Amino acid sequence: MEFSAEQLALRDSVREFLASPGYSWSRLTGELGLTALAVPEEHGGFGAGPVEAGIALEEAGAALLAAPLLSTTVAALSLDPAQPAAAELLPALAAGTTIGAVALGGPVARAGSALHGRVEHVLDGDAADVLIVDAGGDLYATGAAEVRSTPTLDGTRGQATVHLSGTPARLVAPGGAARARDLLHAALAAESVGVARAALDLTIEHLHTRQQFGVPLATFQALRHRVADLYVQLEQATSTARYALRVAGTPEFALAAPLAKLAATEAAYAVTKEAIQLLGGIGFTWEHRAHRYLKRATANHLLAGDPAALRRLLLARVYSRL
């Protein structure tokens, strides 16, 4: 589970870039090429893999990145390059000149080359140039859907409801819907690990600098125990999320991905909620970024299946293998 020297260099580069002021989508995709990481070289990418994409998403979560990196990455990874429409679309997604989003789980039907239906809670659907839509288990690409932004708890990025009424679309991944959902689960897990890590680091720094009765709060055993419990939960989630990305492309991914999403989003929700308590009065202020971490963690906790839905999915997949 250790990162290689190249992967550590990638992590440090992304972390440094996101910590600098004035970054933009064009710089994120142009200078760092983060949307090209997992795209095959023959389609304009760097030919890395889901692990490298996950490293970038962890850092994006820690920085509360408000750009559509996660949705574009999942859209690109969901495509089948053997399909002509997918091969045509991949270079633009890799370059970041086209923003993608995945619309999964809605009641969408296909009639010829047109789609009919509705999909809610599409992450970054309001910013996407192309939508990858699940219709009967196959994935279709369309840029002509009616998209309506919806209010979200997490104000750092948008969601949308997608309406399809005879919308023209092209096949980009036969039978690819289940894999696309697993990729979305794994991506949300990686991002949630970054959110939890940043919130916990922020809390630990506060406990070491804030004093009570003439000593740092970090010297109080009760607070140390609470932080230790959060750290253990975060470490378990980190291992689960990174393992899921390592087994992408294998049969094990179907179990590892929803399990990673379950573990990582529950850890992120627990850590960010507890962080506000441990930060004391300052944690409740609108100016402090603790509430932003909690909102991102809460949104990720519910997107693409809440904990109950993920447990049902895992149970069904385990039983299907018996």
Overview of the structural elements:
A four-stranded mixed sheet has the order 1-4-5-8, with helices on one face. The protein has a four-stranded antiparallel sheet with strand order 2-3-7-6, with no helix packed on it. Strands 9-10 form a two-stranded antiparallel sheet. 52% of the residues lie in helices and 16% in strands. The chain contains ten helices and ten strands. The protein is an alpha+beta fold and 322 residues long. It folds into two domains: 171 residues, Butyryl-CoA Dehydrogenase, subunit A, domain 2 (Beta Barrel), CATH 2.40.110.10; 143 residues, Butyryl-CoA Dehydrogenase, subunit A, domain 3, CATH 1.20.140.10. β9 and β10 form a beta hairpin. The model has no long low-confidence stretch (mean pLDDT 95).
Please write out the topology.
Elements: H1 5-19, H2 25-30, H3 50-62, H4 69-78, H5 84-95, E1 100-103, E2 108-111, E3 114-123, E4 130-135, E5 138-142, E6 146-150, E7 159-168, E8 170-173, H6 177-209, E9 211-212, E10 215-216, H7 221-246, H8 253-278, H9 290-302, H10 307-320
Parallel strand pairs: 1-4
Antiparallel strand pairs: 2-3, 3-7, 4-5, 5-8, 6-7, 9-10
Helix pairs in contact: 1-3, 3-4, 3-6, 4-5, 4-6, 6-7, 6-8, 6-9, 7-8, 8-9, 8-10
Question: Which descriptors apply to this entry?
Answer:
Butyryl-CoA Dehydrogenase, subunit A, domain 3, 322 residues, four-stranded antiparallel sheet, 2 domains, Butyryl-CoA Dehydrogenase, subunit A, domain 2, alpha+beta, 16% strand, globular, 10 strands
